[in-house]
Write a structure and sequence with these properties.
Length: 346
């Protein structure tokens, strides 16, 4: 696999890992965006499986993760400042969406990716966001209307599907369930171990009750199951070293989810509930995947998304998929299964 970086805006690069083109033609390209505490190396197993199945798979490192451009001092201050200006925060989210959209557009042109076939079942691209990366995938759609016209046209022509895997209420700017808990927000846990503890907790398997009732009291919020080890225990030292990130690069996601609540919700609604966005992407498949043994934030995330879109009277074109028996790291523990879910209705 090739590791490189692509310039997507003046002074801005995004690092990526590319499987290269498979032998089949025309092939479909999957662009993936990672979550908190984990880099684009977390897609390593899924990339390998996807390539053998005839897909090109490109995993992108978000700013400021390794190889991608760090945030400027001004951007950093905006993220970390509880009293930040709302308009500047909105512009920040728009810029992140434009960076990702530009990456897809420039990569497509540079490597001459196959366009969508005449029948629409081959070629083109799938945008795949996981965990905190779901917000950045959403931003690509939400702010497409303000892209340069030629970029917007090419993106709309190339993008066949957006897949949102295990988002949470907070990531989409919605209200977290009252019982929600995570190591990152528990101040009784020493600060220096919150991220390592979060990595073990978030990659565990959970035994939830009958979640079909959409009842918060059926979910297990704190204690992981003992029947399967956390996914990170299935990685060797080298894999952990490449995929896990506990340093300063990963510290921006938490304040973003807290201080940018209004902007995150706006991005989500624009992406999946705006007539303007729907008109720009008339043939786009929209898929939400939830693993039912993930931490409860994934299930409450799906419920919050469904409730909010129903309240607004939109989002009826979204397909929801439950991955039974899988956790938040299905792309590592069972890459064949999540690949099927990603491409099945595209």
């Amino acid at each position: 696999m090739l590791e490189s970086a692509l310039t997507v805006a003046p002074g801005v690069e995004l690092a990526y890992i590319d499987t290269g083109a498979p032998e089949v033609s025309p092939y479909t390209t999957i662009f993936a965006i990672h979550g908190t505490c984990f880099t684009n190396h977390i897609f390593k197993r899924l990339q390998s499986v996807a390539f053998t199945k005839g897909f090109r798979f490109v995993s992108i490192n978000r700013r400021p993760f390794k190889g991608s451009t760090p945030f400027t001092a001004e951007e950093t201050n905006l993220i970390l400042n509880v009293d930040g200006d709302a308009e500047r925060r909105a512009a920040f989210m728009e810029a992140r969406g434009h960076e990702m959209a530009s990456f897809i557009d420039i990569f497509t042109q540079t490597f001459k990716l196959p366009p969508v076939s005449e029948r629409g079942e081959k070629g083109g691209a799938i945008l795949f966001g996981w965990s905190f990366g779901t917000q950045f995938a959403s931003a690509v759609l939400a702010y497409s209307a303000t892209l340069p016209p030629d970029v917007r046209f090419r993106l709309a022509s190339q993008l066949r599907s957006v897949v949102i895997y295990d988002t949470t209420p907070g990531i989409m700017g919605l209200t977290d369930a009252p019982k929600s808990w995570a190591p990152l927000i528990d101040t009784t846990i020493p600060e220096n171990v919150r991220f390592p503890m979060f990595a073990q907790w978030i990659s565990s398997y959970f035994d939830h009750g009958d979640y079909s009732k959409h009842d918060l009291y059926t979910l297990q919020y704190v204690l992981p199951s003992i029947d399967k080890v956390p996914t990170i225990f299935n990685m060797d030292f080298s894999e952990q070293n490449n995929a896990l990130e506990f340093g300063p690069d990963t510290t921006f996601d938490f304040p973003l989810s807290i201080f940018f609540k209004e902007q995150l919700r706006t991005t989500f609604v624009k992406a999946f509930g705006s007539p303007e966005t729907a008109a720009l992407f008339p043939n786009l498949s929209k898929i939400f995947i939830v693993a039912d043994r993930s931490p409860p934030l994934a299930l409450t995330g799906m419920w919050a998304v469904q409730d909010e879109l129903e309240r607004l009277g939109v989002g009826k074109d979204i397909t929801y998929k439950i991955a039974k028996g899988e956790n938040h790291f299905m792309h590592w523990d069972n890459p064949e299964k999540i690949l099927e879910l990603i491409v099945a209705d595209v």
